[in-house]
Amino acid sequence: MKEADSKTPMPPQEAEDSALKLYIALNRASQWINAHGDRDIRKHGLNRTEFGVLEMLYHKGAQPLQQIGGKVLMSSGNITYVIDKLEKKQLVQRRASADDRRLIFAEITSQGTQFIEEVFPAHTDIIKEAVSGLTTEEQKQASKLLKKLGRHAQDAFK
């Protein structure tokens, strides 16, 4: 298949093939990179969503329950379930807002902070290894292109 430059439009079938190949490659790469991360997270008794919520609370501080779902791409019903599980593990706690008692925040506990500080550096190394099939420069290029692709797909979805 020939490379098309920005001035020469691809024939329709070639553009369709290219889009489908990209879709498949993105999904397969995502599945395998996630498999590396998931295997590591499971060793610590969490799943990807629990770890993602805990990591977000560690780095961003207490968050209203209603807003967590949008930040970790989950429905609000699932967030309640995840926060319940993290509370049972004493990694997160709920706190009512001082200004509006209807507003409930999730915040990381000292045990949760200790957990992330112990686990996150090695987890980062596992992710770095999983994406090391690309050079650092290629990773930067891929990240930039995927952000552009994601923004376009999001805008087109509205």
Task: Please explain how this structure is put together.
The protein is mainly alpha-helical and 158 residues long. It has a single domain, classed as Arc Repressor Mutant, subunit A. The chain contains six helices and three strands; from the N terminus they run ααβααββαα. Strands 1-3-2 form a three-stranded antiparallel beta sheet. Helix 3 packs across helix 4. It starts with 11 loop residues before the first helix and ends with a helix. The model has no long low-confidence stretch (mean pLDDT 90).
Question: How is the main sheet built?
Answer: 3 strands, antiparallel
Radius of gyration: 20 Å
Span from first to last CA? Answer: 33 Å
Q: What series of H and E elements makes up the topology?
A: HHEHHEEHH
Number of helices: 6
Q: Which regions are unreliable across 5 or more consecutive residues at pLDDT < 50? A: none
What CATH architecture label applies? Orthogonal Bundle
Q: How large a portion of the residues is in β-strands, by DSSP E?
A: 5-15%
CATH superfamily: Winged helix-like DNA-binding domain superfamily/Winged helix DNA-binding domain
Helicity range of the residues? 55-70%
Given helix and strand content, the structural type is: mainly alpha
Provide the CATH topology. Answer: Arc Repressor Mutant, subunit A
Query: How many strands in all?
Result: 3
Q: Which of globular, elongated, flat, extended, rod-shaped describes the shape?
A: globular
Strand order of the largest sheet: 1-3-2
How many domain modules? Answer: 1
CATH class: Mainly Alpha
